[in-house]
Structures are given as structure tokens and as C-alpha cells.
Amino acid sequence: MNRLAEIIAHKRTEIEPLIGYTVEWKQKFRQLSSFRGFRKSLTADTFGIIAEVKKASPSAGIMSENVDPVKVALAYDEAGANCISVLTDQKYFHGHLSDLAAIRKTVTRPLLRKDFTVHEVQIYQAALTGADAILLIVAALTDKELDHFLRVSDDCGIDALVEVHNEPELSRALRAGATFIGINNRNLATFQVDLQTTETLAPLVPRDRVVISESGIKSVEDIRRVAAAGVHGALIGESLMRAANPQAVLKNFRAAAHEESIRAAAHAESD
Predict the structure, then answer these.
(1) CB atoms near residue 68 (< 10 Å)
(2) What CATH number does residue 195 fall under?
(3) Does residue 38 sit within a domain?
(4) Is 11 a catalytic residue?
(5) Whether residue 71 lies in the annotated active site
(6) Residue of 11, 26, 41, 52 marked active site
(7) Residue 37 falls within a domain, yes or no?
(8) Intra-chain end-to-end CA distance of the chain, in Å
(9) Which structural domain, as residue segments, surrounds residue 201?
(10) Does 6 qualify as catalytic in the annotation?
(11) Is the N or the C terminus of the chain less surrounded, counting Cβ atoms within 10 Å?
């Protein structure tokens, strides 16, 4: 069973009542002040960390009972995460847009609305709720949709993290002009995870693009591995959500990633 296809089919039905607000929300959006620079905050460091607030997932089940998204986000903030990702899909990830809104009121870090974007109204909705970036999953979109959503995001000034899982998807993303690439180590059709996905795809991305490794990073060895592949940062959710002390885990990950990134850069210069 293709789980991504199932989720996208549901999402297209779910957002139908919102489509009528497209023009209204677009006009409201134009009154917003500038965004916090999600992508920029990742490249300001040797290696950037996106810490994710995630209550559940189809592959991992419930992460933690009685999760307070604001407390989790504050812990990430205090631990020095560059940015915070917030799952807002309700049916499959037990999230809600209100989680993002609540976090925005208390945390100043740039926020990613992590959801399945299938219509431009969701981009305006995300921006109005306080997001600084949205997710575009290449496998879930046609080339026409991807091109359009990238244009909308660019016009809005909101960052679009374009997610790929294999070489054909990466080619499509690059043809569309994506400059902020997320390499998902999880196959969204099967939910199988393999960090080699990052190791295979990262070298194929032009050096002027910002690249993030997503999913399956559970240990210091894992973060070293993706950092060595040359990416600019990593998105980490499950291992932080399940940790007894997420601040300590995040600090250890940050230290290991910075060390490996410096080593990899020095090695590249000597070649």
C-alpha cells in the first residue's frame, strides 16, 4: 500500500472547505511583516538543526502521551535548535495548526509548517498562522503544482523546503528551480528508512543550494554520517520526541555535527 498516496488523497478532500478563502487570505497575507528567514538561519551555522515537534506518525505511532507542543518547542529553543518544525497534519500525525500558532506566540525561532501542501491556500494559511517556511513534497505533486507553489512561496517571501527521496525526484526539484532541498531518508510510500539516501543524493545537488537531511537520525553516529555527506543541516523529530532529556540529545547532536562538518570541509579543501 502506498501510504503517501493515501495521505494525499485525504488531504485534498480535507482542504476543500478552505479553497474559497484563497483570495481573502492572500490579501491578508500582504499585510504581514517580513519573515524570520528559516533557510538563512540554517546557513548561519556550520551545521543547522531543525528540531521537530511531532506527536505521532503512521510509522512510529504515538511519540509521547500528553505532549505540550509549546513546552517541547521551548526546550528545543533553549537547547539551541536553529529552527523548529511543527507537524500540523491532524489525521495521520495528531498535530494541529493551533500547535503552530501557540508556539509562534512563545518562541522566536523560525518555524516550518510540516504538512502536505496540495493547494496554494495552505501557503497563505501557514504564513498567517506564523510559519516562516512550508514543505513541498515532490512525490505528492505534479510538475505544474510544484512550479506554481514555488512561485507562490517566492512571491510571498516564505521559504519552501522541497522534499525529495530519489534521483528522479531530485531532478524534478532542480528543474523547478528549488534552492532549498530536503532529502528524506524515509520512503514515504513504504516508510522504510535508509541514511544512504542522503549519501547518494547530496553530492548530486549543486553547491549553491541549501540541503537538509531528514528522517532516521537517531544517534551521534547518524548525525556524523549525514554531516559527512556534505548537507547543511538535519531535521530531527522522533529521537528528540522520545528522549528523556531532549535538550541533552540535541546539544550532543549539534556538537557532533559541527565537528564532522568542519572535518569534512577541511578534507574537501585538501583534495
Answers:
(1) 13
(2) 3.20.20.70
(3) no
(4) no
(5) no
(6) 52
(7) no
(8) 45
(9) 3-32+45-270
(10) no
(11) C
